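thoughts on my protein:
***
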Amino acid sequence: MAESIPVGSTTAGQIAVAAESTVATRMSAPPSFDVADFPVPHGREEEWRFTPLARLRGLHDGTAKADGRVEIEVSLPAGVTQETVDREDPRVGKGGTPVDRVAAQAFSAFEKANVITVPKEARPAEPIRIAVRGHGGVAYGHQVVELGAFAEAVVVLDHTGDAVLAANVDYLLGDGAKLTVVSVQDWGTETVHVGQHNALIGRDASFKSVVVTFGGDLVRLHPRVSYTAPGGEAELLGLYFTDKGQHHEHRLFVDHNAPHCTSNVSYKGALQGEGAHAVWIGDVLIEAAAEGTDTYEMNRNLVLTDGARVDSVPNLEIETGEIVGAGHASTTGRFDDEQLFYLMARGIAEEDARRLVVRGFFAELVQQIGLPDVEERLLAKIGEELEGAVG
């Protein structure tokens, strides 16, 4: 069925900066659903220092008025339900509290939340597909995906068109549930998209998130994970291709607040063109009660041209020594000369060799999506990005 409803930086030319600290887990204001609890950011706050505030079109200071239209079309497999609810519904905001002013603004400004429910023990044979299409102007939204105990589902959240959008998403996993989410940001060139994605993982539940960002003028996403009980697993994968003038920012936070849970974070990005700017912040907090935690986070960036800029900041804060393992890594570089030489020595032209290296850089991650149509589309999009840009 388908239904439509309203709804530490570098200078130019440098490759990257990578740093470690725990300061990014300390926000300038505590989480809150009330916009008034967050001061208007000025750009010096830890959570805003990489973001070009002037390009947010007023989402950060309250001047952005909801005058646009975003259409949501949902395709549901049998047994899965959809409803629209008010913000007073207990499921809305259950995944996590807004951690910055834009997320709080989105929560206070949306008209109706879209709630998709997968019943207990259900295992839909087809993915749940949510198409979000921008038709210009400013819009706010809220999406909830709830899985009952031992349910299993795949969700594809696909963003296209043009909009200035602030929207939050809650993923609620019951005990033993398994959810895979693929969120694709394939926006038009003028779009500004800011979103907080909250995953609340139940006992022995498994959450896999794949975030793919191509389009937009500015995209800033804040995936967050927390656990309700032991045994939860989280895998956060990401891919971004940042072009000339684009700003792509992914700020992840995994809160290990329950014992014997695991998390694995792996994000890869490629950048090309003057003023292309990618930001990756990876925060992991292991609380004192989270004994037996096993976590690792990694960010890799491939810089294709001069003038691109990367800020990659892994953060790890540990409050207990009783853990299985914890680590992080961040790497940024240009093409591997040995790989290029190997391919060119076998008669492959340099331009084609460079394309093959980039496709190989992303292929392992893309193949983990598990949906052939989505995988083919993303690999084709990577090819389009490389046309006329790598050489």
About this structure: The radius of gyration is 20 Å. The CA atoms of residues 121 and 316 lie 35 Å apart. Residues 1-25 have pLDDT under 50 and may be disordered. The chain has two domains: 2-334, 337-391.
